[in-house]
Amino acid sequence: MKQNLIRNFQEHFTAMEREVGKLIMGQEEIIRHVITGIIAGGNVLLEGAPGLGKTQLVKTLARVLDLSFSRIQFTPDLMPVDIIGTVIMHKNQGELGFSFEKGPIFHSLVLADEINRATPKTQSAFLEAMQEKTVTVGATSYPLPDPFFVLATENPLEMEGTYPLPEAQLDRFMFKLKIFLPELNDLSRIMDLTVGGSREPLVKKLATGEQILQMQQIAREVPVAADVKHYALKIMLATHPEHSRLQLVKDYITCGASPRGAQSMLVAAKIRALALGRYNVSYEDIKVMAYPCLRHRIFLNFRAGADQVDADAIIEEILRQVK
């Protein structure tokens, strides 16, 4: 029975990866992590330059998973009501009434494009709804779809006119992924698909929202050995200057990862284990998931910027030292 569950999970996961990869080329790790985030019930912050396929990725995922999709372009004049919706007044048979008109957040897959271009007020309203998975207007609460997943993007090149997300808001994202330009061969395939006259491959619906929820439940039940759990916690604690013996951490980090970082590592590691056909979490699973789970939860000082030290370099050193 258990072996069948593992095999079915692995087959579904691999099929989803392969199907999305028909249209999103050269981003296999990004696809794998985004699917992991969806199954985990988390949200992903994606950092990358414009034109690297972020919107196409979410649209393709929505088609493969048969989920509703919306894209919200964040701008300085975007208001909370533009995202969550608003109460409108109407007249029915001469009597005034009120009804709630849902905003674009009421979809299963939401792309929050350039989230750091909106004002802190709008960011806060969106991220609160994202975390609570409900929208409250007046005295009434409206649940968001289940499953619900946000992929938010930031552009690392344009800092002018942006409002960087504060630490507490960043912590609400399960992963932060960095998307880079594909290799030459992948770029050539993309050119063939987009400007070379090749027909765009058709992607099949391989899952439903209900099946995603079932995969979430299977992943939750994967056991984690005490030593593996402690390993994840030691990595998380090692990001804090007051708990770490690493000089690199003491020199460059002002604030380390929260317990959510360890929670995210463990949940993501369970899904990785299942995707590889295992029902037990290994140290290697934790190591692989440490980067996307911790890089946005580690806050560096000005000296780190001056010395060109980034969060990934510190995580790499922590993983070398923590046993």
Automatic annotation (TrEMBL):
Residues 40-183 form the AAA+ ATPase domain. Pfam families: AAA_3 (PF07726), AAA_lid_2 (PF17863). GO terms for molecular function: ATP binding; ATP hydrolysis activity. InterPro entries: AAA+_ATPase (IPR003593), ATPase_AAA-3 (IPR011703), CbbQ/NirQ/NorQ/GpvN (IPR050764), ChlI/MoxR_AAA_lid (IPR041628), P-loop_NTPase (IPR027417). SUPFAM superfamilies: P-loop containing nucleoside triphosphate hydrolases. This is MoxR-like ATPase. It comes from Desulfotruncus arcticus DSM 17038.
